[in-house]
Design a protein that fits this description.
Keywords: Glycosyltransferase, Transferase
Distance between the termini: 31 Å
Radius of gyration: 16 Å
Strand order of the largest sheet: 2-1-3-6-5-9
Structural class: alpha/beta
Number of domains: 1
GO molecular function, one term: glycosyltransferase activity
Shape: globular
CATH topology: Spore Coat Polysaccharide Biosynthesis Protein SpsA, Chain A
GO biological process, one term: protein N-linked glycosylation
Number of strands: 10
Strand content: 15-25%
Length: 217
């Protein structure tokens, strides 16, 4: 099976991606993933977060599975392959958060099965042109396609895509400070200034190293 981990970190987030890659690389080696880590945007006509959609579309034909990981997260416990938690009949998986802002999916960690259906999904995300400058960019488009309301954010009428082709992953796969999970696989730090993120990520890298050292004993 051809699998790849994908991420982009541009501008101030280049340093964050370098830190994140210290956890991506051992995880990829352990579970057989290629790495596609980019430090430059792929499209000039939209805000940088939309380059995520373009990159996934470019890689879709070359792989069986793609895992998107935001640049501001750390895989602190890499023993489990995220693909093991995506049922065979599901197109993609992500975590749904419940925060003070509301209840919404977070595509900062996303596992997707490649193919024609994935291309249609990504094309539909890209087509939400009224959301190009939305505060949640492409994540707002994903939420809308799943049937979520955006203003205020929260569940609306579930779409067929949500009912039949999406699985909500264990929150351990995308633990954020405003909705923390116990014993997370991934610690994610969205919404902070780059300096704060780097401090939090550095602490998580120490946690990752400690886990690996303990496991090796």
């Amino acid at each position: 099976m051809r699998k790849a981990i994908v991420s982009i970190g541009t501008g101030p987030q280049q340093g964050l991606l370098r830190m994140a890659s210290r956890s991506f690389r051992p995880y990829a080696a352990r579970h057989g993933y290629d790495l596609h880590l980019h430090a430059e945007p792929l499209v000039a006509e939209r805000p940088v977060p939309w380059s995520k959609v373009e990159l996934l579309r470019r890689l879709n034909e070359s792989y069986d599975v793609l895992v998107w990981l935001d640049a501001d997260l750390v895989v602190v416990d890499g023993r489990r392959d995220i693909l093991d938690d995506l049922p065979e009949d599901r197109l993609f998986g992500l975590v749904e958060h419940r925060t003070a802002d509301g209840q919404m999916p977070n595509s900062g960690v996303l596992v997707i099965r490649c193919g024609d259906e994935a291309e249609r999904f990504l094309a539909n995300v890209w087509a939400q042109e009224d959301l190009i400058t939305h505060q949640w960019w492409e994540n707002a488009a994903v939420c809308r396609l799943l049937g979520y309301e955006l203003d205020p954010v929260g569940p609306g009428e579930p779409t067929a895509l949500l009912r039949d082709r999406v699985t909500f992953l264990d929150p351990r796969w995308n633990s954020i400070p405003s909705d923390p999970a116990r014993a997370p696989f991934i610690r994610h730090f969205p919404g902070y200034a780059p300096r704060t993120r780097s401090v939090l990520m550095a602490a998580s890298l120490v946690e990752m190293t400690a886990r690996r050292t303990a496991a090796a004993r």
